[in-house]
């Protein structure tokens, strides 16, 4: 039995520090949590609740995690029948040979799959939605996560900070991997597509937070010729330049969310004209709205290149009506808009592999001043000290 301090969600606005007693069952792994990043969805749950979470309360949130195995159930090696991502497959002895001391991250969405594609409906399990997550000193990883191949070993060369960001980075990469840039037509005129940002193209990222910067780095890694980030202040611009350096160009766009709709439309037209100048009249082949702000979603639709075939990637849901959104560019095939909600296990495997190979770096993307259980829950769930992703160190 493990005594564990945890932030426990009971209802919107009601998250309490509690001491839990957690037992490792015969088909479970017990993980000592090293670090857990705060997902924007968790902030929304704290403020507004969530139908899939609220019916399972009390529950511990947190899924952007890394930790070390401290106990392996006696029957874990018998869990050879795969689920979800590994449905119909036999799990290997090598995979199931978990050992205390191994560092791991967990794919939080144990999804079902068809033809290798993740299905959103009726998942096998979801960490911190259906079962307790990682805003806790210890976390029980049950057989569902093991059988979906959702327990990923983390090489020691990867920092805890980077490992905790593997899941949000995989969510961003998932949307990049499914962006459909047309590559031509076949003999009958059927459109053919290449997934990913346009090689050598112009990419715009709306936002300046950790996820925005992860998107920018991934876009360059995937072959974008130029990445322009739209931020709201000199402080945000300085933060982005400190983290990404000359990987990106930064343009400051003053906040206008408090204006009435006509004023917002006017402000956005001015932004579009500035971006025409920045891009030599081209605008952008890829536009990424790395936030759920309806104004950012509307602006995204205006920044698509009218010269070719542009793609917009939305991170997370908008959760609000987008007033004044002009869809003609999408309707007439010039552009498409796709969204991301979670990542596939394969994409998370890719991010962990890239981190281990040194192809991708995510160090410096988390606020260096970690929160702990001495902090009030509302400070952790709603605070933003330096503009970077907050993280909880359960042992601070």
Explained architecture:
This protein is an alpha/beta fold and 396 residues long. The chain has 2 domains: 2-165 and 366-392, Medium-chain alcohol dehydrogenases, catalytic domain (Quinone Oxidoreductase, Chain A, domain 1), CATH 3.90.180; 179-340, NAD(P)-binding Rossmann-like Domain (Rossmann fold, 3-Layer(aba) Sandwich). The chain has 13 helices and 21 strands. It has helices at 40-48, 51-54, 93-96, 143-147, 160-164, 166-177, 210-221, 234-244, 261-278, 294-302, 328-331, 345-357, 377-382, and strands at 2-11, 14-22, 29-37, 59-60, 64-72, 103-106, 109-110, 112-114, 117-119, 125-126, 138-141, 151-153, 180-185, 191-195, 202-206, 226-231, 249-252, 286-289, 310-315, 335-340, 391-392. Helix 8 links the parallel strand 16 (226-231) and strand 17 (249-252). The protein is globular, with a radius of gyration of 21 Å. The two termini are 22 Å apart. The relative contact order is 0.15.
List keywords for this structure.
26% strand, Quinone Oxidoreductase, Chain A, domain 1, 396 residues, alpha/beta, 28% helix, 2 domains, 6-stranded parallel β-sheet, 21 strands
Task: Summarize, please.
28% of the residues lie in helices and 26% in strands. It is α/β, with parallel strands linked by helices and 396 residues long.
């Amino acid at each position: 039995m493990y005594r564990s301090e945890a932030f426990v969600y009971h209802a919107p606005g009601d998250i309490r520090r509690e001491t839990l007693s957690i037992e490792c069952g015969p088909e479970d792994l017990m993980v000592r949590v090293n670090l857990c990043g705060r997902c924007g969805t968790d902030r929304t749950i704290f403020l507004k609740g969530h139908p899939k979470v609220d019916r399972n309360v009390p529950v511990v949130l947190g899924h952007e995690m890394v930790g070390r195995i401290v106990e392996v159930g006696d029957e874990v090696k018998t869990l050879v029948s795969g689920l979800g991502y590994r449905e119909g497959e036999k799990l290997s002895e090598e995979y199931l040979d978990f050992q205390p001391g191994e560092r791991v991250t967990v794919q939080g969405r144990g999804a079902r799959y068809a033809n290798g594609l993740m299905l959103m409906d009726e998942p096998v399990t979801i960490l911190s939605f259906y079962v307790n997550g990682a805003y806790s000193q210890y976390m029980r990883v049950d057989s569902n996560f093991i059988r979906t191949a959702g327990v990923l070993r983390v090489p020691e060369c990867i920092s805890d900070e980077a490992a905790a960001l593997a899941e949000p980075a995989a969510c961003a990469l998932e949307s990049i991997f499914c962006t459909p840039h047309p590559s031509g037509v076949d003999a009958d005129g059927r459109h053919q597509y290449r997934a990913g940002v346009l090689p050598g193209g112009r990419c715009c990222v709306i936002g300046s937070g950790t996820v925005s910067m992860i998107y920018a780095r991934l876009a360059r890694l995937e072959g974008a010729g130029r990445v322009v980030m739209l931020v709201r202040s000199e402080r945000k611009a300085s933060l982005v330049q400190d983290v990404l350096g000359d990987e990106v160009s930064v343009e400051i766009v003053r906040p206008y969310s408090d204006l009435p709709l006509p004023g917002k439309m006017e402000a956005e037209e001015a932004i579009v004209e500035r971006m025409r100048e920045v891009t030599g009249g081209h605008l952008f082949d890829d536009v990424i709205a790395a936030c759920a702000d309806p104004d950012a979603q509307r602006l995204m639709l205006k920044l698509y290149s009218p010269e070719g075939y542009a793609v917009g990637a939305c991170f997370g849901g908008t959760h609000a009506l987008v007033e004044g959104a002009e869809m003609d560019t999408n309707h007439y095939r010039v552009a498409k808009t796709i969204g991301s909600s979670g990542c596939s296990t394969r994409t998370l495997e890719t991010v962990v592999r890239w981190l281990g190979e040194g192809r991708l770096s995510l160090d410096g993307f988390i606020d260096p001043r970690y929160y702990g259980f001495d902090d009030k829950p509302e400070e952790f769930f709603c605070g933003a000290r330096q503009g970077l992703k907050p993280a909880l160190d359960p042992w601070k």
